[in-house]
C-alpha cells in the first residue's frame, strides 16, 4: 500500500484545489491581453499541478514541456542540472509562464529561467506550487506561488521520492524511515 509510507498529510486535496483555482483566476486576469500565451511545464513533477491549473485558466493558451533533472534518486540536490528533453517549439515572442511543482535550492528554475530568457520570449514569469525558502541556494523571483512550506520531504500531487508517490492526491510528508536507510 502506497499510504503506509506516509507520515501525515501536509496539504489536502481540497486546499490544493482551492489554491489552484485562485492561481488560475489571477493568471487569467494578468494574461488576458496576451495573444501568444505559453505555459511551460517542468517534467515530471509539474504535470499534476499543471494539468489542474490549465483547466482553471480561462484564456487561449498553449502548453509545452521541458525535462530537467537535479536530483537523481536522492533527497539532496546534486547541484547539477541537465536537460533531458527540450521544448518542441520556439518561445520567441511568446509570453512564457514556467510551471513548477516545488522550489528547493532554486537551481532547476534558475537554470530554466536563464535558458528560456536567452531565447527571446516577449515575457517570462514563474509559477510554483510549493516553495521551501529555507533551502534556497540561488536567488529567484517567483511571480505566482501556491504555498510556502517548511523543510519536510514531501511527496504526492506530482512530487516523487525515487520516482514513486506522484499519484497521491494530497501533498504528504514521507515517513523518514523510507528515505533514511
Ligand atoms: C524536483 C522538483 C523540482 C526540483 C526542485 O525535480 O520537481 O523540479 O527538483 O529542486 P531545486 O530547486 O533544488 O532544483 P526532480 O529533479 O526530482 O525531477 P522530477 O520533477 O522529474 O521529479
Ligand atoms: Mn521537477
Ligand atoms: Mg523528483
From TrEMBL:
Its main location: cytoplasm. It is found in: Cytoplasm. It comes from the Bacteria. GO terms for molecular function: guanine phosphoribosyltransferase activity; hypoxanthine phosphoribosyltransferase activity; magnesium ion binding; nucleotide binding. Gene3D superfamilies: 3.40.50.2020. InterPro entries: HGPRT (IPR050408), Hxn_phspho_trans (IPR005904), PRTase-like (IPR029057), PRTase_dom (IPR000836). Pathway: Purine metabolism; IMP biosynthesis via salvage pathway; IMP from hypoxanthine: step 1/1; Purine metabolism; GMP biosynthesis via salvage pathway; GMP from guanine: step 1/1. GO terms for cellular component: cytosol. One of its GO terms (biological process) is guanine salvage. Residues 17-161 form the Phosphoribosyltransferase domain. Pfam families: Pribosyltran. Its EC number is 2.4.2.8. The keyword Transferase applies. Its cofactor is Mg(2+). It catalyses: GMP + diphosphate = guanine + 5-phospho-alpha-D-ribose 1-diphosphate; IMP + diphosphate = hypoxanthine + 5-phospho-alpha-D-ribose 1-diphosphate. Keywords: Cytoplasm, Glycosyltransferase, Magnesium, Metal-binding, Nucleotide-binding, Purine salvage, Transferase. PANTHER family: HYPOXANTHINE PHOSPHORIBOSYLTRANSFERASE (PTHR43340:SF1), HYPOXANTHINE-GUANINE PHOSPHORIBOSYLTRANSFERASE (PTHR43340). Belongs to the purine/pyrimidine phosphoribosyltransferase family. Purine salvage pathway enzyme that catalyzes the transfer of the ribosyl-5-phosphate group from 5-phospho-alpha-D-ribose 1-diphosphate (PRPP) to the N9 position of the 6-oxopurines hypoxanthine and guanine to form the corresponding ribonucleotides IMP (inosine 5'-monophosphate) and GMP (guanosine 5'-monophosphate), with the release of PPi. This is Hypoxanthine phosphoribosyltransferase. The gene is hprT.
Amino acid at each position: 500500500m502506497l499510504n503506509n509510507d506516509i507520515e501525515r498529510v501536509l496539504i489536502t486535496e481540497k486546499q490544493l484545489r482551492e489554491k489552484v483555482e485562485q492561481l488560475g483566476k489571477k493568471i487569467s486576469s494578468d494574461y488576458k491581453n496576451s495573444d501568444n500565451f505559453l505555459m511551460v511545464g517542468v517534467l515530471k513533477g509539474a504535470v499534476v499541478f499543471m494539468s489542474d491549473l490549465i483547466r482553471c485558466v480561462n484564456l487561449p493558451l498553449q502548453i509545452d514541456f521541458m525535462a530537467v533533472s537535479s536530483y537523481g534518486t536522492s533527497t539532496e540536490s546534486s547541484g547539477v542540472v541537465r536537460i533531458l528533453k527540450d521544448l518542441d517549439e520556439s518561445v520567441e515572442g511568446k509570453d512564457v509562464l514556467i510551471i513548477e511543482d516545488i522550489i528547493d535550492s532554486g537551481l532547476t528554475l534558475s537554470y530554466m529561467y536563464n535558458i528560456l530568457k536567452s531565447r527571446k520570449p516577449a515575457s517570462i514569469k514563474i509559477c510554483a506550487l510549493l516553495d521551501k525558502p529555507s533551502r534556497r541556494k540561488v536567488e529567484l523571483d517567483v511571480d505566482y506561488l501556491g504555498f510556502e512550506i517548511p523543510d519536510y520531504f514531501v511527496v504526492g500531487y506530482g512530487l516523487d521520492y525515487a520516482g514513486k508517490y506522484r499519484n497521491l492526491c494530497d501533498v504528504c510528508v514521507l515517513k523518514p524511515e523510507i528515505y533514511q536507510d
